[in-house]
Amino acid sequence: MDKKLSTEAYKGVRDFYPEDMAIQSYIFNSWQKTAELFGFERYEASILEPADLYKSKGTANEEIVTEQTYSFIDRGEREVTLRPEMTPTVARMVAGRQRTLRFPLRWYSIPNLFRYERPQRGRLREHWQLNCDIFGADDYIADVEIISLACQILIDFGATPDMFEVKINNRSDMSTYYDSIGIKDVSKQTKITRLNDRFRKISSEEYLSELENILGDRQIAEVVQSKVSTSVNPVDNEVISGLKALGITNVKIDYSLARGFDYYTDTIFEIFDISGENNRSLLGGGRYSNLTSMFTDKKISGTGFGMGDVTMKDFLFTHKLIPSSIQNTTAKVVIIPTDEKLNLEATMVAQAIRKRGISVSTDIGTKKIGKKIAEAVDRGITYSIVVGTDEINSSKFTLKNLVLSTEIKGNIHDILTYLIANQ
User: Fold this and answer.
1) 378 phi/psi in degrees, rounded to 5
2) Checking DSSP bridges between strand 360-362 and strand 333-337, what pairing results, if any?
3) How far is CA 385 from CA 344, 353, 366, 392, 409, in A?
4) How far apart are CA 91 and CA 89, in angstroms?
5) Model pTM?
6) Is it the case that residue 58 has pLDDT exceeding 70?
7) Are 58 and 290 a contacting pair, CB within 8 Å?
8) pLDDT of residue 59
9) Per-residue confidence (pLDDT) for residue 68, from 0 to 100
10) Helices assigned H by DSSP within 170-230
């Protein structure tokens, strides 16, 4: 007997059954609504990119390039990568049409991304991510707007400010600080930044040991550790002042905040779930002033963030923010034939209702009518119409409200009039 294939999905990715897809669609639809409320326009691109895009000095993240990318040689002997993030792609697109685009741009996308890493809570090998970016605006207000958009997205899911906290740092300010204590070697500063990106994932002893290896000086390493370990309430900072003016006050400066990508140059931020059950970063981003320099001599600044669907879903479940009204069906009405011989007639009734823009499913299975109605209730369908010989001969039908246990009777015109009036 032939060995059967496994029904399990590839490790680190998900199958989306209808009930899962209902939640995914809810998240995507809310993302889209809030982004467009802020005037952002949607774009998209292929999941395939030349591998050189991620090996470039302007976008390099050593861990992602060497350990986490899904790369392969295509039939044309080109090295191709499944995109691990979206920012280099959008920078390529912006640079490609810089002469015809009208800046500043407000663009968003919900791309499918791939990274070969150890699957764990909030992190898989494949996920979707909301990316929002503003290009061509140098003023700090662009950073304020990007962060306020990120906060509003959470608010629009029903979150309250006491559920999350905004942490802010500045790459340029940290570089100035390193210079001031004698760490002027840019390569060492870059190594410290990458180590800081792991600050919350390793012990203080391990952090100090690795820092000493980078600097070759225990005393300076201790000074840096003391600085990085500091999280302070808002100080005189124009981005924080701008957020405060918009009513966003759950903000702190966190000197350990680094963001792993080399292209960030100034303001960086992350938003954290502060519940004990899901105490983790929900999203992150910042300002990148030189990313388009890989493609063009013209400097186009950008600021933006990415928010993953896995961490978003965990946040919503942790705080019980998934509406009970989300169901795994799009059908409003189910048509139930009393006998398999009437399946075609039932489908014709369904078709007449669909022509008026009302979603209808037809249960042409072999279960008993009572079981079919019970399953329709479980799926969240609002109405049922049973189609039997008497209904076909008289052209009179009964529309039953499965939620309220009420019903109306009439011909298809009467049924449609009622359904349209109660959409």
Assistant:
1) -60, -35
2) parallel
3) 14, 11, 16, 12, 10
4) 5
5) 0.89
6) no
7) yes
8) 57
9) 87
10) 171-180, 186-196, 204-215, 218-228
